[in-house]
Amino acid sequence: MGREYQSTPHHGHRLAARLFLCVLLALLFLLAPASPAQNSPSPAPSPASASVWVMTLDGPIGPALSDWFVRSLEEANKASAALFVLQLNTPGGLDSAMRDMIRGILDSRVPVATYVSPSGSRAASAGTYILYASHIAAMAPATNLGAATPVQIGGGGGLPSPSSPGDQSEDDEGAAASPDSASALHRKRVNDAVAYIRGLAELRDRNADWAEKAVREAVSLSSSDALAKGVIDLKAADLNDLLAQLDGQALSWGDQAVSLALADAQLHQVERDWRTDFLAIVTDPSIAYLLLLVGIYGLVLEFSNPGMGVPGVLGAICLLLALYALQMLPVSYVGLGLILLGAVLVALEAISPSFGVFGIGGVIAFVIGSIMLMDTDLPAFRIALPVIAAVGVGSLLLVGLFVRLAVKAHEGPPVTGADTLVGQTAVALDDFEDDGQVRVLGEIWHARSQQPVRRGQLLQVTDRSDLMLDVKPDGKEETS
Q: Which CATH architecture has domain 44-276?
């Protein structure tokens, strides 16, 4: 029986370890980066290709959508598709995700047509860069593009208001007279974005001057104006109209001219796979934030109560997922440090009560760090304030519970130490009139009494002074 009883915990630990290893291997498989696109010059696509891949991208451009686009474009290259159509409707997105998509377009052997559709859609901010990078830029009626000024990162000053070139020169003189680090950082970011989009415009022979205005002055254009100004190549009512206009069109591909044959092309709709859905969930800032909290508190609970297993395994998995998501998101390490500090202070309040000093300080650090965690002003990539408020209130209630338990324990009678002997029943070990020896709670103590004591008599401890107990007859029956 003893051997069987001891084997059960070890079997449970081995099972938990195997489960954790399997999950870890699955994570490594999921998080492995997609195969990089080829960097060498690519040959022109064959005009005999008869498939058109169509992807619909609707929403902010983040790591999940960027990964999906790059992988799908690589598959289209392997399938030697005639054309890859990206139906785009986006308010913008992260700079890193946008650049990954543009690198995929520039390295693609298959021409990419970015089509802003349906009517009412937009290609704002990051979408404008993607439109300029594409081999073919098209828009549906009642759509718009532009407002490509980089969003201020890191909590500095807001974006500058659109200004005329004369106002811009005055602003530059004022900035030179009173340099400001935040303004200098913003100007560097804007100048970098201008150089980037002008390079894309020159590569595709599109209106580079308007592209610069879209970055510097955040201007926008409707589809009709974009076509008139040479920002896009064509305007199409729907996908069929787009393919009809592109059929037989010649594209410059390196040193060659290729004519697209799309009359008999078969449409292949690119569907979102489980990896994209998984990454979209994990890289949601609010989900990543909650995973981080579960991971931290799970490990704290496991370390404070070794052998439980479940909190440690769950905490480690959630922490790995959170760290993976955070390394793809614009994270402020100051905010992350404040969150870790807050979690440590709350844990200290539970382990070593400070009557609210550690706990309240931890909640304050926790809330401030949560607000600062996402280092971007893009609404789609910030932690929802209701989530932060709920976690902050929950942490405050938890600290209040710890403080209440600490106060209750402080005001109650002692439950450990020598002071707990007062009021206990003692047994006299011999006869004595002044002092002698008694047994209390299994321990032998020196005792003194104002009355004669007989061997085996039950006594009550009334006080303690160092190693001497004051006793008096208990009035109960004597023990042998």
A: Alpha-Beta Complex (3.90)
